[in-house]
Specification:
By secondary structure, this protein is an alpha+beta fold. The radius of gyration is 36 Å and the shape is globular. The two termini are 48 Å apart.
């Protein structure tokens, strides 16, 4: 047993403690870097880092072969960081690089990392401040976490967008001369945050400049929001009204009610002491535990001018015939309609005509409920009847506009009573005032956002699990290889070890499918002719689906090329074909049906909604895989692309639940889109849209293939005599024998 120099065990123990402390700090830094993830993920990552730190500590404690604690620490951290996805570096206190992993090579060469960052950092506040904070933390030996915009030195032009890199620098406890750097690319997250911030600002500007009054008050009756138009009517600045009690600007006895929906006429007093009347529609909502109002104010400047005419004829619809009010009525951005006591439309503005569809002449005299889909008509009719009868002061509900065929739009409907007198004077209600707000885009965005969040979370889960599981499988396969060196084919343990290795390789194949779903699998894309690829696969597909299923392949004309990994393209088609076979044969090679794969070229001139996705404009190659199987139940349609979700659980060994999730990952990783149309008893149709390569690339590819064909037809040139000293070994034949199917 080798002897150790005096104090060597103590030195190695001190190095192990230093590395253990450093790895614990790295675990905390990892929790900081991955803070945007769910809390469960952060705790999981910290636990994995802490466990890895303990393993490294035991390894260094037992090894004890080096007397340099810094070298031991760097070697231990290097083994941990070699497989990390993001940049990882180890430097001294001056920023000199002592170690870097593969992902950090583009960030800094072996030298001064601070010099590399200073040369690439954007010359703005974010870039200069980030570099200064890093320099200060290195000198002081403190931990720091910054986000720095870095410019690509190869990008053309000075206006290129920077790449944002998040850097967490942590000093090693016990080794103050070393610094651990961990990086993460946050360019996509910052771009999304900028887009959301701009959308919120645009919406705020839209409401602030709306040509109708808007305000919000809290439970104490104080203004919390006032838009510009309402402030102009009151003769004050919007900022000056914030915190002012609403009662100070009310002139009449009528006061908007805080509870529920309220509609009525209110008198307001301006800063100059003048009064004006307005139609007020108000509702309450909960804002982070605080109750506030959403209030719409429609100034009735024409009401006073036409008051005598309105009182003389007593008709609720005629009250709105004033010329000035008609201009305001038609210019309102909210769809407004007036009904009589029977629920028939007596008047409507331009926004209402555009929302429900149809000219004003066809709408007047028609029933309001007829503009809705049949399923929502009874609900609106009941609410409208209760408002007109006086049983409800106001009502609000969500409806779908359209006919028996389909819904054209979705809207929130606000109903209020219409009477010839002022609110609250007991006058007879002659009809209803109906406000409709188009919520179609909002509902679509909610569905898309929910779907995107779900698939993103599933992808992060699959990618994280696959990455760590792959590390474990690599170790298992490696140890199997070591055991096989000591146990030859005749050894009794040889068969058991081979079984372990084969099962580990099969598990690694599942990991590759998970990585394909999470879009972390490396690609080798090239320009692919879909027609040729499907033709070559047709014999394999025929054998896969069996003789009892009719297979049809329908090629489109001039569909062009797509840029995709050929292996992943084949895997995608095979997975869809096998799923279709199982749906038609009941997971046993019996029964029958037909499987049709068709292709076509398709061009979208504007963003087009396909399922839960919105396809941007461009040229695409459409691949349709249709079967005549039993179909997919509606409750399963939203989950079929989730990993490990399978409808074949009743048949042991029928599927892992990774087939369609792998297809989804391949399509999205290639930049395409996939949707499914199915119903129980009428089969399923999967439609894939892959981006078509540019026409110039197609022309160049065609020229290259023609040149290759000409070269193949021309006689080969005479072989040149071998140069002096060249290898004159005769040609050899390599025989490959593989016993694993």
């Amino acid at each position: 047993m080798p002897t150790r120099a005096p104090g060597e065990s103590r030195l190695n123990g001190w190095a192990a403690a230093a590395v253990g402390s450093a790895l614990a700090a790295a675990a905390l830094a990892a929790g900081s870097v991955f803070a945007p993830l769910a809390p469960g993920w952060t705790a999981w990552l910290s636990a994995v880092s802490a466990a890895t730190a303990s393993a490294a500590l035991v390894f260094i404690w037992q090894a004890g072969r080096h007397a340099d604690p810094a070298a031991d620490a760097i070697a231990a951290l290097a083994r941990l960081f070699d497989r990390a996805d993001g940049p990882r570096l180890i430097t001294d206190a001056t920023g000199t690089v002592l170690y870097r992993n593969a992902a950090a090579k583009a960030l800094a060469a072996r030298g001064d990392v601070m010099a590399a960052l200073e040369s690439r950092a954007a010359r703005d506040f974010d870039g200069l401040d980030g570099v200064a904070r890093l320099r200060q933390a290195l000198t002081a030996g403190a931990a720091v976490d910054v986000e720095i915009p870095l410019l690509d030195p190869d990008a053309a032009g000075a206006g290129a967008d920077p790449e944002w890199l998040r850097l967490a620098v942590t000093p090693l406890s016990g080794l103050p001369q070393l610094r651990v750097w961990q990086g993460e690319d946050v360019t996509a997250r910052r771009a999304i945050n900028d887009i959301l911030a701009q959308e919120r600002q645009d919406l705020a500007d839209f409401l602030f400049l709306l040509p109708a009054g808007l305000y919000s008050v809290d439970v104490d009756g104080a203004f919390r929001f006032v838009n510009q138009r309402f402030a102009e009517w009151l003769g004050a600045e919007p900022e000056a009204l914030i915190g002012t009690p609403l009662d100070l600007v009310l002139a009449g006895s009528a006061k908007p009610q805080f509870e529920g929906e309220w509609l009525g006429e209110v008198q307001f007093r301006t800063a100059a002491g003048e009064t004006f009347s307005a139609l007020v529609l108000q509702g309450a909502f909960d804002d982070a535990g605080t109750t506030r109002t959403r209030t719409l104010v429609m100034r009735g400047g024409a009401v006073e001018a036409d008051e005598s005419a309105a009182q003389s004829n007593g008709s609720g619809a005629d009250r709105f015939k004033g010329e000035r009010f008609r201009g305001l009525f038609n210019a309102a951005p909210v769809a407004i309609a007036i009904t009589d006591a029977e629920g028939l439309i007596a008047d409507c503005n331009d926004a209402f005509q555009g929302l429900v569809g149809g000219p004003r002449g066809q709408l007047i005299g028609a029933a309001l409920v007829d503009r809705l889909v049949p399923e929502d008509r009874a609900t609106l009719a009941a609410a409208l009847e209760r408002v007109i009868d006086g049983a409800l002061p106001a009502a609000q509900l969500d409806v779908r506009l359209g006919d028996a065929g389909s819904a054209r739009a979705q809207a929130s409907v606000f109903l209020g009573p219409l009477s010839p007198g002022a609110a609250g004077d007991g006058a007879e209600i002659e009809g209803a005032v109906v406000h409709l707000i188009d919520t179609t885009e909002q509902k679509n965005l909610e569905v898309q956002f929910a779907q995107a969040q779900k698939m993103q979370a599933m992808g992060q889960l699959a990618g994280g699990v696959a990455h760590d599981f792959n590390n474990l499988l690599t170790a298992m396969i490696g140890f199997c290889d070591l055991l096989l060196q000591r146990h030859a084919a005749g050894d009794p343990s040889f068969a058991d070890i081979m079984q372990i290795k084969q099962n580990a390789n099969r598990a690694a194949n599942l990991v590759r499918q998970l990585l394909a779903f999470s879009r972390k699998q490396p690609l080798m894309p090239r320009n692919l002719n879909v027609t040729d690829a499907l033709t070559e696969m047709s014999h394999l597909l025929t054998r896969l689906i069996g003789e009892s299923i009719e297979f049809r392949l329908v090629h489109g004309r001039d569909i062009g090329l797509v840029r995709v990994d050929p292996g992943q393209f084949d895997q995608m088609i095979i997975n869809l074909a096998v799923n279709a076979r199982d749906a038609m044969t009941g997971y046993a090679m019996s029964g029958g049906g037909s499987l049709t794969i068709s292709t076509a070229a398709e061009t979208f001139n504007e963003p087009t909604r396909l399922g839960a996705e919105t396809v941007p404009p461009g040229r695409y190659v459409r691949i349709t895989v249709a079967d005549t199987g039993k179909g997919i139940p509606p409750e399963n349609l939203a989950r079929i692309f989730e990993p490990f979700f399978s409808t074949k659980k009743e048949v042991p060994g029928a599927g892992t639940g990774l087939g369609l999730s792998t297809v989804y990952g391949i399509v999205r990783q290639t930049g395409g889109f996939i949707q499914v149309d199915s119903a129980v008893g009428r089969g399923a149709t999967f439609t894939i849209h892959l981006p078509r390569v540019a026409a110039e690339v197609e022309a160049e590819d065609a020229q290259a293939r023609a040149a290759e064909a000409r070269a193949a037809d021309s006689p080969a040139p005479a072989a040149a005599p071998p140069a002096a000293g060249a290898d004159r070994a005769p040609p050899a034949t390599v025989l490959l024998v593989e016993d694993e199917d």
